[in-house]
Amino acid sequence: MLAEIHRKISRSGSNLSDRLEDKLTGDFFGAIRYMPFEVAFQHVMRQVRFHNDDHQLEWNAVIDKVAGYEAVLDFWPSHSEGEIDLLLRHSDAYVGIEVKYFSSLSSVDEEDEESIRPEESKNQLVRYARMLKEIGKDRPKFLVFLAPYNILFPVEHAMQTSSVLLEDVPFGYLGWQDVLSALEQIDLQPMPYWQAMIINDLKALLVRKGFVHYKGLPESLLHTELTDEAYQYCKQDIERRGYLWPAHDTIEQEDSYVYHQQ
After folding, report:
1. Superkingdom of this entry's organism (predicted)?
2. What is the rounded distance in angstroms from the CA atom of residue 60 to the CA atom of residue 213?
């Protein structure tokens, strides 16, 4: 809905295949904003990872302060550096969130980064960091890159070895798979029905998008005592059935044959 309201998707939907990231952004964050921040959004934002411990502590402190509807979400705000997907404005911080689904960064530096200054970089994330530095003024500023693991990890590695990062705009990283895991851990039992319904819909959406991932062996299995004794596996008797093979002298390729159950 929000992607269409903000004209990311045409009225006819003819450009929908080119705007799937915008649609996912609008569908997910447009729905999660209807609930108080601490109900679901906070759980998701706690999954953001920073490589600097001080930045991580500062981030956690900011996220834990936000409650209710204090945070204002701006979708695709226009700026000379580009349109970041989501801008979260709060009295304690500015948070930019760039969302990816199928594609990676839209622009990177083609030249040797060592010869490029941060204020000259064409890298999409660096441009958004410059935007946050300008509009955030004296408030703490954070930039979060949200993407599936296969896109997230290569970008994360490249940015960690980059020389064009802005020191006063920490970069955080979040996988869509981590978002789904965070929602799955929320206890829906004490919630009003409408909140639980939204969270269930968001989980179903992310499952449909293919963000389910292997989380390791069950905790109970990890504590199972192993011995040298043999294990006996029991199963119910399987009903045996017989089938009559067609009485043909030869089997011809691409012909159809019917098997009759005895």
Report:
1. Bacteria
2. 25
Structure tokens at 173: 């990283």
Per the structure, the complete domain to which residue 64 belongs is given by 21-108+117-209
The verdict on residue 149 lying in a domain is yes
For residue 8, tell me if it sits in a domain.
Answer: no
Indicate whether 10 belongs to any domain: no
CA pair distance 80, 177, nearest whole angstrom: 32
Q: What is the pLDDT of residues 183-204, one digit of tens each?
A: 999 999 999 999 999 999 999 9
Rounded to 5 degrees, what are φ and ψ at 153? -65, -45
Cα dihedral sign, 64-152-187-194: positive
**Average pLDDT, integer, range 209-220:** 74
Evaluate whether residue 12 is within a structural domain: no
**Distance in angstroms (rounded) separating the CA atoms of residues 226 and 223:** 9
Q: How many domains does the chain have?
A: 1
CB 98 within 8 A of CB 81: no
| Closest to 23 measured CA to CA, from 88, 89, 81, 75 | 75
Q: What is the 3-state secondary structure (H, E, C) of 37-49?
A: CCCCHHHHHCCCE
